[in-house]
Structures are given as C-alpha cells and as structure tokens.
Amino acid sequence: MTSDSYKILDNPVWHALQTVHKNFAFGADNIARYRPETLQILGCENPEKVDLNALRPWISTGEKLFMVGKLAAPAPGWTIGRKLDCIQMVCENAEKLIHKPIEEILTLTEDDRAEMLELINEVQPGYFYKDTPLLGSYFGIRKDKKLVAMAGERLRMTGFSEISAVATHPLHTGKGYAKMLVSHVAKNNMEAGIIPFLHFVNTNTRAGKVYELLGFKGRRVMPFWELIVES
C-alpha cells in the first residue's frame, strides 16, 4: 500500500462509522458517535468546519466523549478534558508475528463478556463497555479456567482494523500473552487482506517495544481529546 492509502487512518473514527461500523453510528450527515454502550467516541468528516452541537440530540448532559485526531472548533457548552497523546502503529508484514503460540488462544463469546469487562477494567478502566465486544472479534487466554489475557478489535473500516483491549492480569504479565494475542488478531486480519493498526499512549514505552518486535511500525502521533458536555 502507498502512504496515501493510509490517509483514512488520520480520521479513523469517522471512516469506521461510515463503513464497517455504520450500524453503530448515531448522528448527522457530517458528525457521528458510537452508541454509548459500545464506545464513548465521536468522529466528524471535517473537524475544522463541524459544529459539535449538531450531535446534541444524541448526547446527554455530563457525557464525556473522545475525539481522535484533529480537534473540532470550540462550541458553547463543551469543554476539553484530558488529552492523550497516542502513537499509531501499522503492521504490513506478518513475518515477525508469533505463528505458533505456546498457549491455547480462545475465541471469546457473549458468555465471556462479564469476565472481559472485569479484566479490562482492572487493567485499564474507562474505555471498554458492555457492548464493545460487538465491534469485532475478541480472543483470550485462560489459566485455571480464569480469563487472564485478552485482545480484540475496536475501530474497523474498509481495509483496516484496530487492535485494542490488549490486557493481561497483573499476576500473569511477563509471559508473552500480549504478544501471542496481538499476533493472533493481526494474523487473522492480514489473512483476510485487512491491515491491522493500533494505538498506545506514548508514555507506555514497554507496549511500544512489544509492538515493534511484532513488526508494527510507528505512523504518527494521534491525540485523543476528551470532550465534556456541560450544558
């Protein structure tokens, strides 16, 4: 793929909500959000020209949503909360992925949802919701019947799929579970002709090194802006 082929990753939420995740979208012609029970994220076609208040019919007062990439112009009743500077990485070559994991990787289903929420909220709370698993495929590793590691897909659009919810229980870190699971998700996508990408907070250098070992390459800094609807 050429560098131009990746341009849609500069505005991944909008393109996901216009394509693969269209059924999860609420909003107007040029601005949309995910259903609140799936993700608290919004996207718009042109952040520099959009009116955030066009999304008001689908937002509750006090809600916090993230905007990814360019920040929209200020609008009455909205304030900016946290800014998370993330690194966006893309994997084009499966050579460095783990092809023969030493652990059994299980496909997670609706029956696993409660455990998925418990695990992810223990490791990185606040970004995974009741229906987030509906956005893509999720996989996990169990020890003594307990879910101890997981990873899956979040933003999905034509030709691209974001690997997300990479989580390992604190008592099971350092065993390579994240590498195995990220490799599994990435390999599944690449075999289907889909390019895997991911984001991680730039202060998490350990995660970045793991992804580099698997063949992911940094593409750009991607800010995640928290927007708060106050009135």
From TrEMBL:
Keyword set, alphabetical order: Transferase
Domain of life: Bacteria
CDD domains in UniProt: NAT_SF
Record-level Gene Ontology MF annotations: acyltransferase activity, transferring groups other than amino-acyl groups
Pfam families, sorted: FR47
Residue ranges of every copy of the N-acetyltransferase domain listed in the record: 103-231
Annotated coiled-coil segments of the chain: none
Alphabetized InterPro entries for the sequence: Acyl_CoA_acyltransferase (IPR016181), GCN5-like_dom (IPR013653), GNAT_dom (IPR000182)
PROSITE patterns to which the protein is assigned, alphabetical: GNAT
Record's protein name: GNAT family N-acetyltransferase
Organism: Dyadobacter frigoris
